[in-house]
TrEMBL record, chain A:
[4Fe-4S] cluster 4 binds at C87, C107, C110, C113. It comes from Syntrophomonas zehnderi OL-4. This is Formate dehydrogenase, iron-sulphur subunit. Its main location: other. GO terms for biological process: cellular respiration; formate oxidation.
UniProtKB/TrEMBL annotation, chain B:
It comes from Syntrophomonas zehnderi OL-4. One of its GO terms (cellular component) is cell envelope. This is Formate dehydrogenase, alpha subunit, anaerobic. It holds the Pfam family Molybdopterin. Keywords: 4Fe-4S, Iron, Iron-sulfur, Metal-binding, Oxidoreductase, Periplasm. SUPFAM superfamilies: ADC-like, Formate dehydrogenase/DMSO reductase, domains 1-3. The lineage of its organism: Bacteria, Bacillati, Bacillota, Clostridia, Eubacteriales.
TrEMBL record, chain C:
InterPro entries: Mopterin_OxRdtase_4Fe-4S_dom, MopterinOxRdtase_cofactor_BS, TAT_signal, TAT_signal_bac_arc. This is Twin-arginine translocation pathway, signal sequence. It comes from Syntrophomonas zehnderi OL-4. One of its GO terms (biological process) is anaerobic respiration. The keyword Flavoprotein does not apply. PANTHER family: FORMATE DEHYDROGENASE-O MAJOR SUBUNIT (PTHR43598:SF1), TUNGSTEN-CONTAINING FORMYLMETHANOFURAN DEHYDROGENASE 2 SUBUNIT B (PTHR43598). It is found in: Cell envelope. One of its GO terms (cellular component) is cell envelope.
Amino acid sequence: MANMTNLYDVSKCTACRGCQVACKDWNQLPAVIEPFKGNYQTHEDTNGDTYTIVKFLEMEDAYSGVQWNFIKYQCMHCFDPACLKVCPRGAYTKTDTGATVHDPDRCIGCQYCTYACPFQIPKYRKREDKVSKCTLCADRTAEGLQPACARTCPTGALKFGDREELLQIAEERVKYLRASGFPNATIYGKLELGGLNKLYVLTDTPDKFDLPVNPHIPKNITAWQNIIQPYFGWLIPLALAGSAFSFVSTRVLANKHGGHEEGGHE
Amino acid sequence: MTNHIVDLKNTDCALIMGSNAAENHPISMRWLLKARDTRGAKIIHVDPRYTRTSARADLYTPLRSGTDIAFLGGMIKYIIDNELYHRDYVVNYTNASYLIKDEFDFHDGLFSGWDKENKKYDVSSWDYQADANGLPLTDPSLQNPRCVFQLMKKHYERYDIDTVCKITGTPKNKYLEVLKTFCATGAPDKTGTILYAMGITQHTVGAQNIRAFAIVQLLLGNMGRPGGGINALRGENNVQGATDMALLFHIIPGYVDSPMNTADNKDLISFIRKVTPGAAKLPFTNLAEFRELVKAGFPNSGWKIHTSKWVVSMLKAWYGKAATPGNDFAYHYLPKRDEKKNYSHIAMFEAMHRGEIEGLFVNGSNPVVGGPNSNKEQEALTKLKWMVSIDLWANETAEFWTHQAWDRPVKNPDVPRMTPAEIGTEVFFLPAAAVYEKEGTAAQTGRWVQYRWKGAEPVGDSKSDLWIYNELVKKIKQKYGASKRKEDEPIVNMTWDYDDEHGHDDIMKVALELCGYNVADGKPVEGFAKLADDGSTACGCWVYCGAMTFKDGKNIYKPQLRKKDDPSGLGIHPEWGWAWPMNRRIVYNRCSVQPDGVTPWPGDAKRQLVKWDPLALADPKNPTSLGSWVGVDVPDFIKTTGPDKAAFTSPFIMRPEGKGCLFAAKNSLKDGPFPEHYEPWESPTVNIMNKQNLNPAVKVWEPDKQGTRDKYPIIGTTYRVVEHWQTGALTRNLPWLAELMPDMMVELSEELAKEKGIKNGHNVVISTSRGDVKAVACVTKRFKPFNINGQYIHQIGLLWQFGFKGYATGDPANRLTPHIGDANAMCPEYKAWLCDIRRA
Amino acid sequence: MRVTRRQFLKVTGATAASLAVVDLGFDMTATASAIKGVRTRNVTPTPTVCPYCASGCGLMVYSERDAAGRFVKLLSVQGDPDNPINQGGACSKGAAMFNLREIYEEGTGKQVINPKRVQKPMYRAPGSDKWEEKDWDWMLDKIADRIKETRDSSFIHKEKIADGSEIIVNRTEKIASLGGSGLDNEEAYVLSKMMRSLGVVYLETQARI
């Protein structure tokens, strides 16, 4: 079974955020209204009821003048997902078309996955005491429909299809962009973390789009996983009682103290 | 739009000016990006601020708000100086060769005919020289100094690049790049499109801004061709249809001037004489005589020679049996507006503010947020006796009388504050069904009329607007009963039969009347060419005639067609919905072929839309009707006009002269036959192009409210974002959209922010001579200060989509904007005014 | 309703909803079983056109219907894949059309009618600080009274004009009408006809501003 994925081409995105709303429409997600803080990107990050966001990045240099980069951000559906590895209840599965799907019925809300993810994607949903994230619309694709975000994209910046075919389109597009005033154009998701089931065509280097240049899963996460895995049946109550808390709080502190590398951010 | 949305894919270059297409018409970018991918098209964005449209453009350049004519005047000069115009097109399809009266002149910013006392122009000198038969004199060599081309060249001599950039603040190198890129579409095998929106129209020179586009596009030969045109991206889903139906004081349905209280409107014959071009001096005293004249044809008339048929058919539709040849088809029922009065939006609120209006209907509109000078407009509402608001939501206008409605961020003695107890207006709120809880048609910006089916039941007791008007008129008719008073006849005799057999409103009955039927058998009239002025046809709006057809024993409403085939590959989709007029998708499409009517423009065979076929039958049932215009689009031309007729090379059939107007003759416009740069009413500088600061033909409503540079040094403008729509009533009440743009915000440059000690996310107050609003600061690199003739000038921009109701709330930016409008269209100058900004 | 369920499936890519074998060329039946709450079956699509900007993008309203075809529940609103203007696309506004009628409540995620929608006619008496709910008949009757009172007391039937003659002008300047660009053509048409027959000359729509 081939990997089915989205190709997202930033050079065609107008940041209309149709994808962000269509995702809510399809996945039946309520709005999370936060105050305006001086950037069009109202949500600084995804949250339990917001699986995808568009980031707005303003920059300026003497050569290109002002640039406004937009990027759709959501679960990358990694070939080798850290969330799946660390989940003590096996709530995560990989579908045979490459989507990383989270089963809320199995989820106990421990949130290990939210800290293990190199892209910090799974988010805690308080109203259900569970974690949630993008499913690559596995329910739709199973019925032969495109994911809601790809279906709605007005400009064709988002395409859904066979990853191999999309990769070819991406290679061609990058060639074209490099010849058309974007010498740093590149593909993201082809090789990162051994391959992502999300492909990006970028007009500039990944850092200009707030993407981790060299994402990786911290070693201690997998180590933790190896320890916890054989015992998780009886460890869970304990983990909930204490270990998980210390694990989580350690991670939070690490992040606060410039632990970007551990979190997978550059 | 002269073209349509899908047609954007056919362009070689798009100039987006006064529009933020990516945000306010997102789907347009689908087709522009396609043109870039498949044709190598260039996208140019000209705007005071770098937006989401600029981010996807190949070329972005700023200009100061309100200086479009300077920018485009320089482009006209560049095209002429460098001979980049499409010569064959210009000579044959425009009035470039027409000679203008010797009395026409221009000095110190004033055209000839200026009447200083009455502050208006006598337009009699703005006219063609004519021969003894009244036909215009021309010089196809374009050398005669009185020909339009030479006069135009002279007019724009002053618009050199240095002067233009001093006015607009555009960097010279960027300006040159725009000129070079867009004017390359003057090549016969290239077309360029211009997209505009309210950034162009909402100025005291709004109509002239668009005239400047027209001149550029005619010179470059871009009108009437795929990938070309002047494309107004209209803002409301059916603003086109509402205009077609004449929900405007100055017209009746189908773009006929509305009658006035003057001698030349006093009866039907006088009215027909007045509104039919070329009919003024013709000898006729009744419709029968006039009919004969029309049959024979008379000069300087164009397609509007048929106006009598449209007017009489409309009267027949409205007044049925009461409209007879003996009573002028009840022409006298129509209201005659006072010639000396203006009834446009601003004038309406000025009159309301003076207490002259008792009752107001607000049909899905929200002037407390969207009206200019909305502090004043809100106060005007308090002087009404009664108001009816029809909407989905109790919006800011419906609730103008609440405590909340009078909250202001700062105490300002000039701004009224009231309490509910002080407001005597009786308010009726009628809950309307949402778009997909009812059915009907809408005309989109490219004139495609599409059907919207009903996908859900109305919420609660809400009702479709059709139900509401239908039931209301039934009530009104009941109240008037069988009144015999003369003044009640228009109501008593108005046809109103829209119920089906179950007593429910039947939209197809309305549609049939709107599109036209034969009085004898009630069958649809198959196109406006078949309308008559003898009472045998009834048609509510002639431009929609042809949208209803009779086939296989039943009426087919063509907006319901859903066949998506595109045989030409040009995006015409002839059987998807229906486009007015007569399903023409690109108007003036006669221009897509050379004057001989057969040969495509060199190298552009693929974009030829129509041609003259001497062997085609004009009437399939008549084998002798040899010779007809045919093509992949419905020809926007009289089908039988062949090479033997003078009009064969006159593609602009609605114009009396049949040509595209580089020079707008006679009373086409009130403020001049050529666009000229004037400063906005509130300007930070003086006009260096001529001696008039403000467009002289503009009416100044509130001279005491003109903000000056010493007190208000910053240019203010307003605009929208993709996440909200118009006044926000239909989006701020939607949680998914409220979360994307949750607060009222103002964008300002980093430089200005530094000067004022403002940081990103700070609360700030913006003030003008009309009021103050609070907003969240969005400090951005995308706004830059302008260098205007050596002065360092800031511009800021506010969202005008906020109010005190909904999930996302904030102050209406229109509390700041002035009550002044364009000289022709009276469109308010929302886009350029003076203000100041400070930390809250 | 002109579009059958079969057409819907065709346009959205599925050949038969129950089989999940699709023209993408992949059988993803196995995946489907892992997913809860499938909302892709037994839906009725109804085409409409977006009520926001005038681009005219087609939208599909997906609803659940009972056996008799009566509306039961709104499911989703998405771009109309057949419409040549947008080919299935919808920006944030178009994609949010579900919210025009219904929302998912923050905190519970429950699907409810958008609480901001007004569901009953409402009346505000002069000087009052609150709305009162009224029925339609009462409202329309009162409005018709107001129209008649104002019209009749302000109506100008004939007027003397510059040349000294008298003409019929049939107008009132005391009633004004604003808006209508969000109406369907048929509605805008009857509004235009009604206002003009009442003699209204202060007749304006959003096209002006």
